[in-house]
């Protein structure tokens, strides 16, 4: 007997990606039933005060300590990783979902390990540069190909799968949203990469913080307002 052929009901790659993105959006507090304000949606997406502290404090500690005391490099990196560890332990002790904190801890530890291995403080920001390059490229390419990542996430979040591709208004809106998100990541990369190459660690770390949540929050708000308008009009 030959190998069994794939079932017609087997999900496509787009369905798998869309389902995963939709699940991530739900965990951020978004759902097709919610009628919350954009402000509350953004606040949930950032994880509230805890999420802001977990994403900002380790990097901020590194930048401040490295600026005041560049050597030994282990000091600023150790404090940064230590803060991430403490925040993760607090989540576990309070029986809060530790996934976000664990993700941040792994990212901080990996970046610190790379910087210690090379002996360059600027290499602490290499994972962020790679992430911006990958996310920005994927967002732009997917939007240009007609499979906007934003559209996939929203489509499965709202329970319509990829049907949005048959609606000209939604397809156009998701195209521009996908390009906007891609441009955000690529803008970060274009500003931060020259600073990395010229070893301007303090300025690089500062701009990483400035171009982080302060740019992420407005993009979440605009995206949610556009999505809400689209689906209210559809209803």
List the helices and strands and how they pair.
Layout: H1 13-27, H2 38-46, H3 48-68, H4 73-93, H5 99-118, H6 126-144, H7 149-157, H8 168-197, H9 201-210, H10 213-234
Q: What's this entry about, in short?
A:
The protein contains 10 helices and no strands. It is mainly α and 235 residues long. It has 2 domains: 12-45 and 122-235, no CATH class; 47-119.
Protein architecture, described:
This protein is mainly α. It has two domains: 12-45 and 122-235, no CATH class; 47-119. It contains ten helices and no strands. The protein has helices at 13-27, 38-46, 48-68, 73-93, 99-118, 126-144, 149-157, 168-197, 201-210, 213-234. The radius of gyration is 20 Å and the shape is globular.
- Percent of residues in helical segments? over 70%
Q: Note poorly predicted spans.
A: 1-8
Tell me the Rg in angstroms.
Answer: 20 Å
Largest sheet: none
Termini, distance in Å?
A: 50 Å
Organism: Microbacterium commune
Keywords: Membrane, Transmembrane, Transmembrane helix
Pfam family, one: DUF3159
Protein name: DUF3159 domain-containing protein
């Amino acid at each position: 007997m030959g190998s069994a052929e794939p079932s017609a009901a087997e999900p496509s790659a787009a369905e798998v990606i869309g389902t995963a993105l939709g699940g991530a959006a739900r965990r951020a507090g978004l759902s097709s039933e919610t009628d919350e304000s954009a402000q509350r949606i953004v606040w949930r997406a950032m994880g509230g005060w805890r999420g802001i502290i977990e994403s900002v404090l380790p990097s901020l500690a590194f930048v401040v300590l490295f600026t005041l005391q560049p050597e030994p490099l282990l000091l600023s990196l150790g404090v940064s990783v230590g803060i991430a560890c403490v925040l993760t332990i607090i989540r576990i002790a309070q029986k809060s979902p530790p996934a976000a904190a664990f993700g941040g801890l792994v990212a901080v530890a990996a970046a610190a390990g790379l910087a210690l291995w090379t002996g360059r403080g600027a290499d602490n920001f290499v994972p962020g540069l790679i992430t911006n390059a990958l996310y920005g490229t994927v967002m732009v390419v997917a939007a240009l190909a007609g499979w906007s990542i934003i559209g996939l996430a929203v489509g499965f979040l709202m329970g319509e799968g990829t049907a949005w591709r048959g609606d000209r208004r939604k397809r156009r809106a998701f195209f521009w949203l996908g390009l906007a998100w891609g441009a955000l990541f690529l803008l970060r990369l274009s500003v931060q990469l020259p600073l990395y190459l010229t070893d301007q660690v303090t300025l690089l770390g500062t701009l990483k913080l400035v171009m982080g949540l302060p740019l992420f929050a407005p993009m979440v708000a605009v995206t949610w307002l556009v999505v809400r308008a689209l689906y209210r009009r559809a209803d």
